[in-house]
Amino acid sequence: xxxxxxxxxxxxxxxxxxxxxxxxxxxxxxxxxxxxxxxxxxxxxxxxxxxxxxxxxxxxxxxxxxxxxxxxxxxxxxxxxxxxxxxxxx
Length: 90
Fold this sequence. Notes:
Elements: E1 3-6, E2 26-29, H1 38-43, E3 48-49, H2 62-76
Parallel strand pairs: 1-2, 1-3
């Protein structure tokens, strides 16, 4: 499945996923205050991924979490369709 739920309640780390196996992926993030709904997580726990954090921390800022996981997915796909070198040097 190409849908990944990003949550602190996961056993899988976001960097373990081979995003390049998929033509497209969807990353689902919950509210900063509540996260994803419990029933959604329970029904899709094998698709849940997490960012490693120090024990006792509740969560990271949502925009930071989006940036971290999205960057890894893009990096894993060799930044396909993204400008690799600045046009400043041309």
